[in-house]
Specification:
single chain; mainly alpha; about 80% helix; about 0% strand; rod-shaped
């Protein structure tokens, strides 16, 4: 696996992680009644 491929994968992984973190923060600040 080349360096560029690893970079792309790590960037996509970090992006997905940040999206989940943002959703988590939003859920904490605005609790939903389920």
């Amino acid at each position: 696996m080349s360096f560029a491929e690893r970079l792309v994968i790590s960037v996509e992984f970090a992006d997905a992680l940040l999206l989940r973190l943002a959703d988590f923060k939003q859920a904490l600040s605005q609790p939903r009644t389920q």
